[in-house]
Design a protein that fits this description.
Blueprint: H1 3-25, H2 50-67, E1 72-77, E2 82-87, H3 94-108, H4 114-121, E3 140-145, E4 148-156, H5 160-172
Antiparallel strand pairs: 1-2, 1-4, 3-4
Helix pairs in contact: 2-5
Length: 175
């Protein structure tokens, strides 16, 4: 082998090793990035009262009725305990448990359940489904007052976007 060919081969090997080492130093996926601050770190507050939960249910049901949607709506407190629930006439039975599940997931994970839906559908992160208590369907929204989570609302019986719209109408009534 000529000297120049041997030198070129060694230089190429060293270059490949340097490039490989540089590639290893970068995160493999966005999930490997370590954030500086804790995400979804809204503190828990005093639990929502029955009176406030009833006001929220009334607003949510009014929105669903205005649109002609038959839904189930659940409100849980800051500990994930059911405070109030309404099933509209004609709402599907399976959605009773789903509405409660959405509300509990929203309060326990301190984020809208839409985050999980997006992680699975758009983020190609199916591992999210392995976490206990997850529901990857929008329609669960934490209720925040004075910077603290007081509970969550969950709706089910329509499409995810219908469930979400009714939750948002209910949550907006607390402001």
């Amino acid at each position: 082998m000529s000297r120049s060919l041997g030198f070129m081969m060694r230089a190429t090997a060293v270059g490949c090793a340097v490039l490989s080492a540089g590639a290893l130093a970068q995160p493999d996926t966005p999930r490997d990035v370590v954030p500086e601050a804790m995400p979804f770190n809204t503190p828990y507050g005093e639990p929502i009262s029955l009176a406030k939960a009833d006001e929220l249910l009334a607003a949510a049901l009014a929105e669903a009725k205005r649109r002609g949607w038959a839904l189930n709506v659940a409100v849980v407190d800051s500990g994930g305990n059911l405070v109030a629930f309404k099933r509209m006439d004609g709402a599907q039975l399976a959605s009773i448990r789903i509405a409660e599940h959405k509300a509990r997931a929203a309060v326990e994970f301190r984020r809208e359940t839409k985050v999980f839906e997006s992680a699975v559908q758009e983020g190609n992160n199916p591992y999210v489904m392995t976490l206990d208590g997850i529901i990857a369907s929008r329609g669960g929204i934490p209720l925040v007052q004075a910077g603290k989570i007081i509970g969550a609302v969950g709706c089910s019986g329509g499409t995810g976007s219908q469930d979400e719209a009714v939750c948002k109408a209910g949550a907006a009534s607390l402001r």
